[in-house]
Design brief:
Blueprint lengths: L4 E5 L3 H13 L3 E6 L2 H11 L3 E4 L2 E2 L2 E2 H11 L4 E6 L4 H9 L4 E4 L4 H12 L2 H27 L4 E2 L9 E2 L3 E8 L2 E9 L1 H12 L6 H26 L6 E2 L3 E4 L4 E2 L5 E9 L2 E11 L6
Parallel strand pairs: 1-2, 1-3, 3-6, 6-7
Antiparallel strand pairs: 4-5, 8-15, 9-14, 10-11, 10-12, 10-13, 11-16, 15-16
Helix pairs in contact: 2-3, 6-8, 7-8
Protein name: Stage 0 sporulation protein A homolog
Keywords: Chemotaxis, Phosphoprotein
Organism: Marinisporobacter balticus
Length: 287
Amino acid sequence: MKNVKIVIVDDSPFSISILRDILAEKEFEVVGQASSLEETIKVVKETKPDLVTMDMTIPGTDGLECTRAIHKIDANIKVVVVSSMKDDEIVKKAKVNKVAGYVQKPVDPDEIATVINRAMAGDDLLLELQEIYFDVFKESFSNNLNRITKTIPTYGEMGQSNDTENSRGISIVIGIIGKCSGRMILDLSHETAKKLAEAALKREVKNMDECLAMLGEFTNIIGGNACSILNRKNKIFGLRVAPPTIFHGESLKISKSMLRTTSVLGETSFGEMYLNVGFERDEEEWM
């Protein structure tokens, strides 16, 4: 990542000094500082920073008004709030005003470095993720199937297609959020689902609801484990999974995706299982 030029906006000389030292230690370039709306406008125009750290309490104004003024000068300048205050209402207002990140004082050096790098990450981050994500998800599927059922799947060739496909009967969808957002789909037949659930539970399933609940948790584990591995490879990804959504029935379709997705058919002891995962860049997600 290129050298990031930063302006610090804060009404406390002590906070500016501490933050300047932290940013220098993390190899960011501090090109200016300001403690009022007028100074912020002047310094931003003069220094043309890539990013501004913004306190929320500024005499005669606030951090959000300063943020709006910065974006009038250049909408591409990222703003990261650095403030002692943080609650749901402030975070909501910050997002509305296109703040790129939020760090609470006292500032942790590693945290602010991650937030800044995440805010400044461009298309190269998505390209990095696209090169590695599917192998990680496939490995997570294999490992967790083995842990739960003591069996190992084999795979056909990987493919990339955004066409609408026929479901085998049950589709479990996991939403993924972070600097890049995406989805994971596990699709299988009712018969395969029943066999898998019974192998995991080591007994007959009581009903379809119990079977679907097991599948939802299994898919959630696959997605969660995969995202954790990816975050360890690069914490800027900041990936998190949403609760699973389960669709089942006759004539079910896997809809065409706007994402670039990769898929593979896994042959297991219980039947075919179709794995599909894709990501796109998400500018707005930072919490």
